[in-house]
Amino acid sequence: MKARGYVSHRAVCALMALLMVCVPLVSHAAQRAKSNWVTSWAASPQPRWDGDFALPVRVPNQLWNQTVRQVLRLSLGGQRLRLRISNRYGTKPLHIGAVSAALVANGGAIQPDTARQALFDGQAYLTVPVGAAVISDPIELSVDDSADVAVSLYFPEPTAPQTFHWDGLQTAYIGSGNQVNNIDMQVSDTSETRMFVSSVIVQRSEPAKAVVAFGDSITDGNASSINRNHRWPDFLAKRLLKANIAVVNAGISGARLLDTGLGENALARFEQDVIAHPGVDSVIVMMGINDIGWPGSALAPHKEPTSAEQLITAYRQLITLAHLHDLRIIGATLTPFEGALHDSPMRGYFSDDKEQVRQQVNHWIRHSGEFDGVLDFDALTRDPMHPARFLPHFDSGDHLHPGDSGYQAMAEAVNLQLFY
């Protein structure tokens, strides 16, 4: 018989083993809870298309012994940051010789003494496998809210930019040799596309969350002013700073709910372009006008018309995916498009039948109650005297995209209580 209070050697060992297993797990969980990493900027990757498509690629065929410096406007700032580099559509491993992040001075110049080398598992040289993305080690660079950050990448080997973001609306600077730390780059070429850099994640001292704007060219900011950050998600980001909420732009010009073309269809990219962002809490969906407008135009001359029922089915799938991941999902009505692109090679984008589909879709978005909230961008931007057309003051001139004032009005019309 064992004396009262006696604990066997085996029991002591079991208890110690249990503590040794449990204590690190608790510690890691606490560390994750206090990490406060949130995505502050993004440009959704898309595959480069062939030259026989209706739109120019606008990206170099090859980068070789060259540096590309890209300027990114963050929403929330932080004490440290990480970079995500994507090779999602590459057909071979992506080799990058050096990467840096710095604060922007003006144009392609960076502020002295702010360049920080980005390391990946402690290494400066980076290889990204085919179809993958990699995230840098934390970079010790403190950035303010709404800061402009320059990310510079050096390509020592011949590299085709197969993964890019077409409608960057920001000048990227290209120069010979390794110039990632140069204050003033020697620039030989420029581009208005994004290449390989798909997001910036910041660490804050307090918890933060993100809203993802998931859409097409109207979310991407097409027809807004170059280098001005006048997309509607940019204006919304300024309004949400005080609430400690970042706005992540996951728009792709030409994006569709149902079909893959300039980018993957909405269901195919929702996980990577929405759910995968650290800190995401809500998503705004504004997509579908290209599904309606492309069939019968130069963009998809032989495609059958898209019905409202097909689009509603896709919306319901996005709602299901969002709710399964505990995300709030907000639906935005489709804006007017009569006369869209009529004076361009894309004529045929609008028809009366297509307008009926848009009206049916908007009625469902407004009245079905299936989204967690609604942004009625159609009611805001339409001409009351001609509801199928943009209000002239908001029209960029192509009758499909808002101009700067239209994008600002869209952001100012958003009820911020949807995200609190």
TrEMBL record:
It holds the Pfam family Lipase_GDSL. This is SGNH/GDSL hydrolase family protein. Keywords: Hydrolase, Signal. SUPFAM superfamilies: SGNH hydrolase (SSF52266). It comes from the Bacteria. Residues 1-29 form the signal peptide. GO terms for molecular function: hydrolase activity. The keyword Amino-acid biosynthesis does not apply.
